[in-house]
Design goal:
alpha+beta
């Protein structure tokens, strides 16, 4: 996708997640940056280019990609996770209109949110307004990996270890 769709436009694909759309085919929500540091969010539809008789479902180099919707990051006023207390892969992007998005997983939703927060801080020098996200999975900490997923796993292990230690303590 980087080579076919973004490189000819002199853009670098920073992050993409697969999303579910009503139209047939695979769809991706992509975040790219130009050399002039302009951040772009785009919905990309993958159109299969399969030879006759081929039943493979893999994405290949011969597949074509079409941007169906494009926004600049500064147009995004609010990123709304809908409900931080449940594993819901759906979220809302508030531009001039509200664009509902359903990611393939909750982890993909948080990965995209971390990316947009980081790019907003570094390229736009403004804070992206987040609503209904669990901020502990978004905000960088002192032990921060680029993707943040390692931090989530480390916190889960830490809490589990604390529970085991507490269960082994004698009750007076």
């Amino acid at each position: 996708m980087q080579r076919v769709l973004f490189r000819p436009e002199k853009r670098i694909l920073v992050e993409f997640i697969e999303i579910e759309e009503e139209k047939r085919g695979r769809h991706f929500l992509c975040v790219s940056v130009s050399k002039s540091k302009e951040v772009q969010i785009a919905v990309v539809q993958c159109q299969k280019a399969r030879p006759a008789g081929c039943k493979s479902q893999r994405v290949g180099l011969e597949d074509s990609y079409v941007k169906t919707e494009v926004w600049a990051l500064q147009e995004l006023s609010i990123l709304d996770g809908r409900d931080p207390d449940i594993d819901d892969p759906c979220f809302l992007m508030h531009f001039d209109t509200v664009r509902p998005v359903k990611a393939v997983s909750c982890a993909a939703k948080y990965s995209l949110a971390r990316c947009l927060v980081s790019l907003s801080d570094t390229h736009q020098h403004t804070e992206l307004h987040l609503r209904n996200f669990d901020w502990t999975y978004i905000q960088p900490t002192s032990i921060y990996s680029n993707r943040g997923d390692c931090m989530v796993l480390m916190r889960i292990c830490f809490y589990a270890f604390n529970l085991v230690c507490l269960s082994l303590c004698p009750v007076p």
